[in-house]
Write a structure and sequence with these properties.
Strand content: 5-15%
Protein name: Cbb3-type cytochrome c oxidase subunit
Organism: Rhodoferax antarcticus ANT.BR
Helix content: 40-55%
Order of helices and strands: HEEHHHHHHEHHHHHEH
Largest sheet: 2 strands, antiparallel
Keywords: Cell inner membrane, Cell membrane, Electron transport, Heme, Hydrogen ion transport, Ion transport, Iron, Membrane, Metal-binding, Oxidoreductase, Repeat, Respiratory chain, Transmembrane, Transmembrane helix, Transport
CATH superfamily of the largest domain: Cytochrome c-like domain
Structural class: mainly alpha
Number of domains: 3
Radius of gyration: 34 Å
Number of helices: 13
Binding site for heme c 2: 186, 229, 232-233
Domain Cytochrome c: 130-210, 217-297
Length: 300
Amino acid sequence: MSDFVSDFWNFYVSGIVILSILACLLLLIFTGRAHAVTAEDNTTGHVWDGDLREMNNPLPRWWSYLFVITVVFSFAYLALYPGLGSYPGLLGWTSSGLHAAEVKEGDEAIAPVYARFANMSYEDIAKDTKAMAIGERLYSNNCAQCHASDAQGNKGFPNLTDKDWLHGGVPENITQTIVEGRIGNMPPMAAAVGTEQDVKNVAQYVLSLSGSPHDADRAALGKEKFAVCAACHGEDGKGMQVLGSANLTDGIWLHGYGEKAIVDMVNNGMQNVMPPQGKLLTEPQIKVLTAYIWGLSNKS
């Protein structure tokens, strides 16, 4: 791998920056010394609107000095701050460092707000009006984009207001999901199930598990083929929390309802990703957010 890594681009960028600044300075020097051919009255011969003549006067000295100052400032800036390839600058300033410092400052400023929740249980936090107002804000900023503003989800994004939890709905499980994220993977299973008709029969059997409208005869044929699916969803179709596999008996359809939706799932599989949020939130924030989400499906 080291064969593909070099400092070429660092030197390339640095060289272009330095040469560009020097070129500006040289341009000023050369243009200041160059003399255009003019008439005795110091005009260039260009005339507009009948009597408007172009003169050949030098640039004001204050303008030239200001230009030189900007060049000097450029070199000073590049010495103090990053701008020459991988050179960090004498001050060691970085935008990421500035962001980290501001985040730390913000966390320290709001720490007293969260301090009162440190020794409270999730259940008690969920009953605290102030905590839930904070939790709602945390949810809106970090979760609503996928799970919707009312937390009832969208197609492919779980509803957080019911009690259907693929990985468990107790606060500890919710915290783990927030911090570490989740990856749900349903591999394509058509080849393992059998023919196209077998897949449709399995779809009918899956519909029967939740009492949904189905063809009883085809469902009976699909029951035997469901053994392939039982490895993850269980023989009773109620799913396995340890795998995060869906409960097929509760009538909750995350990726669509009906034979076609189930057939598409069996044929093509599906992968869902819940990105980890642990590095974006502090521990107190995660605790309050957990309590808020837990409270959505456990309202008294």
